[in-house]
Amino acid sequence: MSLYLADAEATEAAGRALGAVLHAGDVVTLSGPVGAGKTSFARGALAALGLDGEAASPSFPIVIPYATPETRLPVAHVDLYRIDDPSALEELGLDDYLFDGALLVEWPEHGGRALPGPALRLTLSPDPGGGRRLTWQAPAAWGARWPLR
């Protein structure tokens, strides 16, 4: 399944739709090339969770945690681009965020099989006609919650 996103605004709107239904324990992975809109999507999700202002990119810090009351539930925005060894994920303590929060993980392929799961796997890619194409693999746990059709 896929969805066409015309621009950065549409990408953030898709993120907001997802953020509105995000629950504690959810893992959302965001794959795609540089500039495909992963951070824009995450910013939309964080806005829907109540974050006031623009979310910073976690490229340098790797993990940016957000907690209540800043967001309606704790969420960690993670960027694994600079991770060379998946065993390093254990040191990040990502599992700890899932007790009462959620994870938004960019560049999940750098984490290998070390990421907590099951994850809602999203891929953003440039569309030949302009804009972006969002594709997804939703685990059974997402059932009827998946907001994008």
Automatic annotation (TrEMBL):
Name it.
tRNA threonylcarbamoyladenosine biosynthesis protein TsaE
Asked if the record carries the keyword NAD, the reply is: no
Q: Which GO terms describe its cellular component?
A: cytoplasm
Keywords (A to Z) from UniProt = ATP-binding, Cytoplasm, Magnesium, Metal-binding, Nucleotide-binding, tRNA processing
Q: Which family does it belong to?
A: Belongs to the TsaE family.
According to its UniProt entry, the protein's GO biological process terms are: tRNA threonylcarbamoyladenosine modification
* Gene3D superfamilies referenced in this protein's UniProt entry, alphabetically: P-loop containing nucleotide triphosphate hydrolases
- NCBIfam families, per the entry: T6A_YjeE
Q: From the UniProt record, which GO molecular function terms apply?
A: ATP binding; metal ion binding
Organism of origin: Sphingomonas jatrophae
- The transmembrane segments are none
